[in-house]
Amino acid sequence: MIKVKSKFVAIFWMMLILVACSKSPKNNNENLFGTYDQAVMLENIANQILLSDITSFQGNTKENLVIVENFTGNPTFATLKAAQDYFKILSQNWAKVAPFNFGPMQTELIAANIDTWPAKPVKMETAVANQIGATGVGADTKGLKGLEYLLFDKNGDAEVLVKYTTATDAVARKAFLNSVSTELVAQATNLNNAWTKGYFTSFINAKGNDVSSSLSQTVNGIALYLDEIKNMKVANPIGIGVKVNDNKSHPDIIEYTLAEQSLEVMRANVLVMKSVFNGGSGQGIDDLLDYVKAQKDGKNLSVVVGAQFDEVIAKIDAVNSPYASAVNNNKQQVQDVFNSLKTLIAYLKVDVANNLGVTITFSDTDGD
User: Fold this and answer.
1) Which of 1, 56, 279, 359 is most buried, most CB within 10 Å of its CB?
2) How crowded is the C-beta side of 172, counted as CA atoms within 13 Å?
3) 119 shares its domain with 202
4) pTM reported for the whole predicted model
């Protein structure tokens, strides 16, 4: 009888365990986020910021093509100036799209084809000489940085005009410039179509906090791009980066060496990442942090991170323009941007990620 009783007790406990397991959450996300509607947050971020900027960029690439073709059809100082001015608009619009290199932008190599840098002038000159269009060259031979090389010259606009008027390869250069501009339209259109015809819905539906979730993709995307800014756009030019670590100034490796858009683009990068973090006028990552009652030093973590975004922007604004001169003559201003970015990245990789249960899928390139 004792053995039978023990058997029934064992069966009873096994049933309780099975029932408990069947009612337990599939992951910690159900307990962590409770009744918070992630879909509202994701739809706001996707609709009001990500897709909005992608659509604007697509429209700007089309306008850029018209202006470039006007220049190649009639190369004058006026038409060149119009093309250069619009390039600056285009580069700042792309700056709002670039940080979110996930989904179709990554899987279809759209970001790489639009903005691989530094560009390779030798390869572009070879393409011109061999009359090869943008679709027949690598990512470092076209895109925005290729467009910059083709429209600007350190020796002034007169040197640019010579290349498109009296130079022996002027006709081929015009054709290559047009093809680079056309390729930008194609890449931007591909990105916009991918979002509007499927990925927008996928982004909203990818709730949770695992590595494939939109929350994880977005947090990782922001942290990774901030790390790229810190190292490639800030640290390397003043000689404290991974690739360039000699404590010397290198103004020749700033992002926009010819168009002098480095500071403006960097500022636009950080501003859009802040917008995604706070959701603009709607729900953002900061609201989710508030929901889980995330704290940092006795303050709401959302407030701490938001303030750090503002500090980074303020430090960028404090850098004397043009950026190349600051790299040479005001290194401390650039160092201040580096330090502020380093703090912001740490908040995202440690505090934000831990409080939201997000796994950071990359390592700092400088080991910080």
Assistant:
1) 279
2) 12
3) yes
4) 0.90
Residue 201 domain boundaries = 37-207
Which of 165, 192, 207 is the last residue before a domain boundary? 207
Omega cis (within 30) before 237: no
CB distance 200 to 28 below 8 Å: no
CB 268 within 8 A of CB 94: no
Q: What is the DSSP letter of 27?
A: S
Burial 283-310 (b: 16+ CB within 10 A, else e): bbbbbbbebeebebeeeebbebbbebbe
Same domain, 58 and 164: yes
What is the pLDDT, as a whole number, of residue 20?
38
Q: Does the structure show a pLDDT above 70 at 2?
A: no
pLDDT of residue 32: 86
Q: How far apart are CA 12 and CA 77, in angstroms?
A: 88
- Could you read off the pLDDT of 330-361 as tens digits, one per residue? 999 999 999 999 999 999 999 999 999 999 99
- pLDDT for res 73: 98
The yes-or-no verdict on residue 276 having pLDDT over 90 is yes
Region of 297 on the Ramachandran plot (φ > 0 left; ψ -120 to 50 alpha; else beta): left
Distance CA 173, CA 200 (A): 38
Residue 300 is inside which H or E element, if any? strand 299-300
